[in-house]
Design a protein that fits this description.
The protein has 614 residues and is mostly helical. The protein is 61% helix and 4% strand.
Length: 614
Amino acid sequence: MPPQPVPSRPPVAHRVLVQAPGHLRALVRGSEIGLIVLAALIGCCGGVAVAAMTYATQGMREWLYGLPPGLRLSAATDLPPLVMLLAPAFGGVLLALFTLALRWQRRPRRAVVDPIEANALHGGRMSIRDSTVVVIQNTISNGSGISVGMEAAYTQFCAGLASRLGLSFELRRADQRTLVGCGAAAAIAAAFGAPLTGAFYAFELIIGTYSIATLTPVVVSALCGSVVARALVAQTSLVTVERADAITTTVLTTLDTVPSLALGLICAGLGILIMRGVTLVEGAFRATRLPTLCVPVLGGLCVGGLALIASPQVLSGGHGALHLHLDAHGTTLGLSALVLLFVAKATASAISIGSGFRGGLFFASLFLGAIAGEIFAAGMPLILPGLAAFGLTPLAYAVIGMSALAVAVIGGPLTMTFLALELTGSFPITGLVLVAVIASSLTVRKTFGYSFATWRFHLRGESIRSAHDVGWIRTLTVGKLMRREVPMAPLDQTLPAFLRKHPLGSPSRVVMVDGEGRYAGIILVPEAHAALREAEDGSPDLSGLLRHTADVLTADMNAKIATAIFDRTESEALAVVEDLKSRKVIGFLTESHTLKRYSEELDRQRRAVLGETG
């Protein structure tokens, strides 16, 4: 298992970055129409990129497995057993060789910034080079039959391309983040032929909010991506609904929300188990202490073995298999076979990511959710015979389960709801899907608290729960806010000497330092004068007047943390030290100034979300 990646650093513009001509930059920065045109360009490029990656992975699968042209790997039924076992391991060899090539180039080892992290922390700045590396790794993984989808590569590359284009036009932070969302929207729309799904994927997961200012560019980009991809790649519908009775046998009523709600809650639990399972598998591979480059090969052998035991449907992302399960006639698998397939596919996906292959769980979660829906339809009537009285068919439960499990793992309730609507065209089923995804999303959020992407950030030490822009908080540090002219005085002097140097009317707070120049505390000048007047015999010692002896700030703290410390200490001002060990005083910060600057930044962020430029 590869060692844990180091925390990502904000990507910077490369020196060879081509800047757009000045008049074009001014047009895009000063006009909403210019940003929309840029979003349309990103959408078209995203459609082409998704089509190219689709052809590359399909061509690799056809070459490795000897598939007929156009046949999806997970839909194949007569694969040679030896090929099925060894082809995923061959993908591990290719991935290891590619990793060696990166090391030979001595590329700096850092965690790749994905679109969510870029928009949350780095103002939409991404590296196109890192994104290209992800595309190659994901293509090797998916093309060799490893149980991961290509959606990670789609969104990474298209968002990275959008980020690079935004940097060349020197867009403002809010517009840069919107353009990254446009790239991700185009990628998902092109992958599924579903513009609304792509748009809301960007709103919910990449931008972190919906606003009028972002509506037009994101939707335009998603539409362009979908249209271009459809023109370049033949896409078949995931759901084949020839007649209304394929989904329901009776008129749907309010009572039909009961099994949908139950299925949503079950899918929430399954989603949490899958995300936890990936972490456990990673730990197991680390415990083997195998060389890093050998781990993907072992992982590939495990995936191939699962495909031999269960079904070829375990392999790759599962597009072909999902077509089979969502066909109006369904599959002929029994309940026990469905359970075995679910366990095998979930295990294969966890092994694939846990052993170092690159990819995501977007499509795997859709496929697993469809299987979970079929299991629910076949198994629950055995436990609760009354469930058979409801009017939903196994296909309807498959669609509901697909959306509910995907929202548990990926997030985005409206994204998955619109996906169901665009795939089925059925508003009644979409209503039941909405019930299930709300139940699933709420349960995961309240019991687990993360999607798969944010769970990975958590394991890496990043406290990111969504793509909401929190990067500005990290850059608004105490070091930038503090005043460097600090009134200081040595602690080893008498009170009268101190008062002669600091009469009433002088700065009201003085930072005291000990004989070694270390922070000792703060003395309030009016309080010191009052103490001398009230002293009955002699003069009090300065050490008895010290306040906040253990309460200090450091320059790398952000304004939010500093505000919390002010609240806890009930102080109006605190000293800033170089570090907690040396306690060398380097500045002084007041609560009022911190709150003022923090409020100004919050207001600026609010105006950016609402699209207000004034």
